[in-house]
Each structure stands twice: as structure tokens, then as C-alpha cells.
Amino acid sequence: MARAASPSHGGLLPLPLSVWPTETRLLLGLVVTWCLFGLVVLLSASWWPSLQETGSGFYTIQRQLIWLAISWGLLLVVIRTPIRRLLHLAGPAVLLGCLLIALTLVVGTEVNGASRWLVLGPIQLQPTELVKPFVVLQGAALFAHWRRISPDQRLLWLGIFGGLILLILKQPNLSTAALTGLLLWFIALASGLPLTWMTGVAGLGAAAGTLSIMVNSYQRERVTSFLNPWKDARDSGYQLVQSLLAIGSGGTTGSGFGLSTQKLSYLPIQTTDFIFSVYAEEFGLVGSLVLLLFLAVFGLVGLQVALRARGNQLRLVAIGATTLLVGQSIMNIAVASGAMPTTGLPLPLVSYGGNSLLASLFTAGLLIRCSLESAEHSSPVSGRSPS
Description:
The chain has 387 residues and is mostly helical.
């Protein structure tokens, strides 16, 4: 008699897919759909600037396809790697991320008033993006064993996370700092820490964000222009005004694929931070609601993975991964629609950029891996060979 392979072992991709749980196959399908959707939206948003800058409308999408292939390779590696092994890498990776972010403050390339990039020959690294999946992993490792680890270890990692957020604020990058803080907060809340503690931490986080805005004129200007962008529509409010014009021009059903007018030199950074504005103009309110519904479905499936997870670490990794992908998407849409101050935060799996793709598909791989391991523990797949 022979046992069939477990769904989480064997091969680069744990095949056959037929033995995967329905939930896991649904997750994989949602990630594939998200990536294909992102390519379609990016093709439209990038065509005009690529044509103007390089003479080829396909320049940006070709580079994105290369990074997408590399990122899917990383996702497949993550799917076949046990979460416990990835957790062992998380601590050193977070420390390395802190070091690289600190380097951006010294030798980083400044873009739009913020120093977030390290240029290594032809490769541009954005450490704040690459460190996000490891924050999920290390946050889960810390808070899953919170009551069993020593006070010294707790303070050490809380200090490291605090230092990471402060370094991100120093760039300055308020949106990513806020996202990192919220990510850790949700993981800690899901671990069962007292609500009174979490309320206090939320207050401290809000105070730190307020202080950062008061100290940095760059961030303060973003907030004041967010409150009334039309007051200075040609300068500090320009980005948001053009984004709102694009979204408003879409109406109910949109202007049609490829027919956005705001992307023709009016809307800034339309392939990254404001790519949703191009999408909303071309697909209208209906398309925007479909995207929000998709994010809601993805979030519900991710929550289902977390609820079925066996063990605190697995559950917290699933919650962190879901929060990161869906939460960052909601924040990007909120910025583009004027519900949040204008900040630089890409739309996962849609915005142009190799760093964002790598981090997002790594995170998606963590969620799929959690689903596989939960299924293996709850109902291992077995079979018998023919007599």
C-alpha cells in the first residue's frame, strides 16, 4: 500500500492541484486574477508615458512582465517552504531591512522629496517594500509566543520594530510607517493581547504620526492640501485634484479601456501611486465597485485561512499577510480618492515596480502556504494504490 503525496510537499509547485483544498485553489486563482488584472490596468496607464519617454508604448509593461516572472518564481519557492523555516529567516531579514533603510538616509536616491531607494548598478532597491513580508513573519513569531518569552526579548523586538518605523518616518514615508504600525497592531490584537494595551499603543502611534507631520513640512503640506486641494490646485493640491478629476470623469461606466485623458500628461505618477485613478476613469463607478468587491472576497478567504489555521503562528501569519495585501490596497485607493492624505504607496500587484511585486507575491505565497499547512494538519490527504 502506498500513501499519496501530501498537498504541501514535493515538486516546485505542490502538485497535483486536485489534492489541494478548495480554499487554497481559490486563493491561487484570486492571485492569478489579481496579477492579470494588474497587467491590463498597467498597460493602459503606462502606454502614453512609455511612448513619450522611450518611443515604445510597451516599455513599462515589458519590464513589469520580467519582474512578474521573477516574483512568481519567488511565490512558488515560498509555497513549498515550511512556514517554520521562513520564520527562522524573519528576524535577520528585519534587521537587514533596518540597515538598508538606514542606508537610504545616507546614500539613498531622493525622489519627490523622499529618500527611499538604493541604486546598485542597474538594480534599484526599495527596502521599505522588501521588508514588509518579514515584518509579518517576525510579528507573528513574536506575538504568538508573547506570554512564553522573557521580558527582555519582548522589549528587544518592540524596540527593533519601533526603530524600523522611525527610520521609515525619517525618509520621510508616513504612509508605509503607518501601514507597518497597523500591520503589527492587527497581528498583536489577533494574538489576544489585552484590549487596554492595544488602545494605548494605538494612541501612541497616532501621537507619533502627528508629531512626524508637525516636524516635517513635506508631510504637513500633504495634509493641508488634502483637506482643501482646490485651494492650491496648481501646486500642493495638484496631484489630488488631477486624481479626483480622473475619477469623476469616469462617471458610472467609465470612458473605456485605454481612453483615459487624465493620464495624458495631467495625472502625475499614474503608473504607481495613482494608477487607481486611471482605472476609475476608464471603468467608472461600476469597475471601482468590482475592484472593491474583489478585495473583500480576497480578505474573506484570507480570514477563513486564518480561522482554520492550526497553531497561533500560522494563524497570525495568515492574518498579517491578508492585512498587508488588502490593507495596502485600501490605503492606495483612499489616497487616490481623497479619503487620505496624498502619500506614496503602490497598489499591490497593479502598480509598476519590481520591489512591490516581489513583496506582494511573497506575501501571497505566505497566505497560500498557510492554507496548505492548515489543510495538511486538519485532514491529511492519503490514498491507496490499486490492489
